[in-house]
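Incident log entry.

Two folding requests arrived from the same account within the same minute. Monitoring flagged them as a possible duplicate submission, but the sequences differ. Recording both here for audit purposes.

Request one:
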Amino acid sequence: MRPSESLNNTEYLNQEETIDIKELLFKFLDKWYWFVLFGFIGASLAFIYTKYQSPVYQLSSSVLIKAEKNNGVGLERMFEGLNMGGSTKLENHIGIFKSYSINNQVVNNLNLGVTWFKKGIFIDQELYKQEPIQVLFREEETNLTGIKISVTPLTKETYKISAFGVTKLNGTQQEFKLDQEGHYGDAINQPQFHFTLLKKSEIVLEDQYYFTFNNLNSLTLSYVAGLKAEPSSKQSDIIRLELKGTVAEKASDYLNELNRVFIKFGLNQKNQISKNTVEFIDSQLSGITESLNKSGQSFTNFKSRNRMMDVSNEASIIAEKVKQVEQEKTVVDMQLEYYRNTKKYLDDPVRIKKMVSPSVVGIEDPSLGAAIAKLGDLYQKREVLLFSVKENNPGLIMIDKELEMTRMNLEENLKNLIHNTEITQSYIIDRIGIIDKQMAVLPQTEQEFINIKRQFDINSTLYTFLLQKRAEAEITTASNVPDAYVIDKARIETSQMVFPKNTLNYMIGLILGLLLPMIWFMLTEFFDDSITDITMIEKGSSLNIVGSIAHNHHEGDLPVKDFPRSSITESFRGLRTNLQFLLSEPGQKVISIHSTIPGEGKSFISLNLAVTMAMNNKKIILIGCDMRKPKLDKMLGLDNDAGLSTLLIGQHQLQECIQQTVVNNLHVIPSGPVPPNPAELLDTKKWVDLIEQLKEQYDYIIVDNPPLSMVTDGFITGKISNTNLIILRLNTSHRDEIKFLNNIAQKETLKNVGLIINDVQAQGYGYGRRYSYGYGYGYGYGYGYGYGVGYYDQDEEHKPKSRWRKIKKMINKITVNS
């Protein structure tokens, strides 16, 4: 047992596998060149991807929304009580910015019906305001949208145009093809296209262009989806607009035009009531002017005809009463008509928004004006919101509920106002009847004069009143200013390229390039159950490691003889030294070499160990006990007609089977011809007698056995062996073999079991790791040597890794400290 270990075999069997991060890191460092290669490939692919991607620019602008009330001159009298411009909600303005109608107006204003491109090697360049050719077409004519129409200049005056696509004709899809030559200015008339190409600037004949007709509805929706509008902060009244596009100038023009259309829209909304008032007054004035002219002419003619300069005092009093009552009746009639029309148009958003202010008809009721203005505002909000949301949107549902409540309250108020006004109208009519009775006692001439003058005075007063209201409305329109101001307009100079992100793409490419080999190695490590490192054996088994054999860099099966100054020869010398301490008791001469599976190098190690011990002036006999698949005779070039199989069946004598090799003091008993029952031949007294007889003639007996996991031959020979050395070959043996060997040791199927690690790669500071575990008694030289690179001058291959050695030392130091 190793001095530093106290786990028994059962504990080793039950020990859970854990991931050794440091060991895994060392493995990654050993494959550094793969990480460098794939990291370079990843960064290169990221560079190519970035270079041949169309750049996307982000532009922004800021708009200040005024929240204070600004009613303008004269509004106190005309629109008293109206909530115009107060307590602005940014959400409403954001909804207007992202509305379809506003953005569609912008698209039409910028003439974005056609998009031109210049063909490139990898990416095509969009031409905005730089297209050398202009497309003229009529909106009412048919032009298929989304079809790439290629234009190839042939000469300075001619071109070739081509297009291909699929269209629907009479409900069925049909292919079409456009391929013709033409002169600039000639009309293209096809079933699918109707346009004319005009040359705008000098054209490079080597360049190729194409253009597409855009679907303005789809283009508008794409701008609405790409437009970002949000408050610059929670407490701010500034809306920040952002838009991304492949052409910075195009995105800049769009944002600036959007701001202009938005401000114009807001100003038009503010002026709408004034415009409605002017239109209403103009319609009334047209009739009143005519009536005023007629009544004035009648009044003049009557006075001239009857040579009347004045009337009696009583007639003057009655005329004044008639004038006053008629004026009151005219106002009441206008108010009553206004109430009835308003009640009639409550459910009509278009008509309700065109209603004039109540003050125009002499109604000084602030609550009524506010209610009508609120109803129109709610209709406007609903119209704006419908462009961006569906009918079941919570915000729209809330507006509908508020609309319904406002309509109900306004309708109830109008009913009361109509009722009260009708009462007032009846009262005035009664007063007119009383005055008419008083006027009946006057002379006929004075009666006619009073009637004519009454009509003239009414028209004159009403005309003056309407002119005054019209002037106030025009003053209001002239004094209105926008509620929104552009603080920062979109500028190309302040645009930011947001795609592709060069640095981020390079980092992603590099990281992905590094991850690919890492994932591959980790998956390989996960699914690979081979033993790749000595530490796996140390952690998984309590069996002692007697020696480790370096990787054989030489051709031939006898490197210890042909290359005495090589690392593999030195590793066999170390194994020989450990075995001398291990077999120090008298009579301990039999060494059995085993493997678990084929290919682990048992015959190679058996032969070279025998040569190494023979070169140390020891008389060695090597027995080929693998009678199922003989190999020693081929490795040494010996005759295999007489060997162990013929010896055990009595066909040959011992001396007939022993053969001398090219190495002094080394004799070999080959396995002989393949028998049908190798296990039965070994499990006899003849085999035991043979070993006892050979002990008297040789210093050590080395037995080369077949694999333990496949046949029982090795277990039979191992019973009479002084030590059983089982070979595990790195990158060939499987991890399950460790459990298999632990079971052998636990059940004592073989006694005095030790391990030999084969095919240990040089790490630049010897082969294997530096350990100094003895074999059972706490002494021995271990299996690691520290002679360093260059000591074994006969090695054909060594890979100096002094740089990684320093890194590993640093990692070890950090790990120990942590």
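Request two (distinct sequence, not a duplicate):
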Amino acid sequence: MLSNQYNIKEVQQIINATGELVSEDVISVLLTDSRRINNATEGLFFALSGRRNGHEFIAEAYSAGVRNFVVKEGPELKLPGANFLIVYDVLTALQTLATYHRERFNLQVIAITGSNGKTIVKEWLYQLLCTDKNIVRNPKSYNSQIGVPLSVWQITDKNDLGIFEAGISLPGEMDKLEAIIKPQIGVLTHLGSAHDEGFENPRQKVLEKLKLFKNCTLLVHNYDQLVDYKTDMPQTATCFTWSRSFKQADLFVFSETVIAKNYYLRAKYKENEIECIVPFLDQASIENAIVCWSTLLAMDYTPEEADKRLERLTPVSMRLELKTGINNCSVIDDTYNSDIHSLEIALNFLGQQNQHNKKTLILSDIFQSGLKEDALYQLVADLIKTKKVDKFIGVGEALNNHQQYFDIAEKFFYPDTNTLLKNLNTLQLKDETILIKGSRSFEFEQISRVLTQKAHETVMEINLNALLNNLNYYRSKLHPGVKVMAMVKAFSYGSGTFELANVLQYNKVDYLAVAYIDEGVSLRENGVELPIMVLNAEASAFDKLVDYKLEPVIFSFNMFDEFIKHAQRNGILNYSVHLKIDTGMHRLGFEGYEIETLCDLLEENKYIRVLSVFSHLAASEAEEHDEFTLKQIKRFEKAYKLIEKTLGYTVIKHLSNTSGITRWPQAQYNMVRLGIGLYGIDAALPVDNNSLHPIASLKTSVAQVKKILKKDTISYGRSGSLAADGKIATVRIGYADGYLRAFGNGIGQMLVNGVLAPTVGNITMDMCMLDVTGIEVEEGDEVIVFNDKLRIEELATEIGTIPYEILTNISQRVKRVYFYE
């Protein structure tokens, strides 16, 4: 049996599980997500409990072919041919199995933790050491209580070095991860404020992180960060310290200079002066590079060898980018790394995107896998088949040599990237979702540029991880069984339509809501199958509404009559509708005195079936209006009870919007409507709260830099000038892109190389000018209009509006790029 295979009876003993085994199966894959099933016949599904109970998804995993499950003690579960291993705690069982697996291998292990930079340092250490070692490491940022055991499970007898990062958010977590990883070398990255909310104070968090290194023999860290923790350091470890200020550190960095767009570092090491060139300029990358430099020296690499390797470091892209492609294609760009585990992650993301029926993969040869080529490409071929890829394009000598493994109707192979580029037109890529996945040396960014629709340099980036964080935050506030309706109207508050809807569908929200029928039609045409409520359905488009199985909101007697007539004309019975009650918002809906008349119309009406009754809170975020909100709740309850009594059946009831979820738990009923909170904004929470993450960043670039005299005037109407001689940067965004004219003349600010720069003069249609006096800036430099640092709430306050208006004003000509880390 292979080193990462176990028979099910052995697994049962390792995790101390009960349960009768009905078949002798082999286990090689650990599964925690029913949507991401790979090699089902050798998979072991752990029914983990978190925000969603994993036991709810056993049937889904079973239907995908899984026959082995680890479940929590409780009601007896039986499915034909399935083994159920019953344990007290499913997560503990997963960690126990990973710990056992780790103990079988005598390999050197580096463990990394910190607040920031863990994943970058891990990936750079992989780049620096992979020429000497066969390395196993976390896929992407799999560093949690679940991610670490899944990462350690990858260890085989081919590996002689493991590099694992570990992240924590609560006390008591690190001991479990240390037992799984069992490192001999520890690396501590930058300590910051991330996850402070989970600890009593920063000291408690640092001490928890240090537990990862309690049995290490070597620990690399910044001297300045741990100067107050000398007595808390692991007793078994020799510490290798680095510092920019403490001369007695093992590596004292005393000089830092920018030379030809590289960063030149000089340091004292073992009484000698040494040097290092790093091909990055931002301070986060420099600190991460110094951590890697220190680690190489601590592992006895010579200063000369360390310098040579560090100079060859390449950027780490830990994110998949979804872009609009040519010929009505969608392009998923993952062009900077390629290994079997990140390929699986990327294919899972490809599977989420349903806007096109055809799914295409462009893949390069995979390096440093630790597997023999035959085994590797058989594994790749099986994975592609499992993930139902329709078209496969392989690039590289190894893939060419293993064409026979790929059982797929449309397959093409090219020796190198240039040959593929020359033949790209012959592939007739059209109306498909294309995943581009390549090792860096193949320079697949050339393919991405050709396939991506051209757009100007103003881009709105949408962070899908932040979207899911926000969704899960609000889910954590809900009572058991309460459904979530996600609001994706108005181009998802400016953030996209099907791109977000497909992700929300994949993550099992219960309903979507749009404003108009055309928005719902677009979602249906792009693969969205969730129930969709239309808030303002027009009678002229009722035929489309029915054809695309959209559900209208009935908010007036006139609309009620119009829809009933349409149903009668077309022989429609029991069509799903939603009733809106006006409890005080006074926008749309039946008012209190109209409910009895409405009930008369509903009685024995065979043309419609009421799925839900809802209303809208006018000021759920505002404490000063709480008395009014309570009145709305009482009016709503009176209305829906009368309607349910008339109908003779129970309906879905929903009243809470984003701030309602936050402040009014008693008003959840059996569904809530989550809107702007999905996008990281909740008026009921402080702006600097750590629970929500803004999903959108608006970026542009510098078109030109000019020296300006005090006497000069700037922009239309000669409205702008500088207080003294200085310089301005013209940037590629104007009111046609959604940067409103109200931001002109110093009211608005943007981040230029990390420094706030105010606007100068009036905002023009396509451009605006910034005062960059005293800022190092060149043409082409990136400029941040808003992000998680320069918050959209601040911009709204500057011009006396609300974040909704700014988001929904971002023009469609601004390219949207969706990324998933």
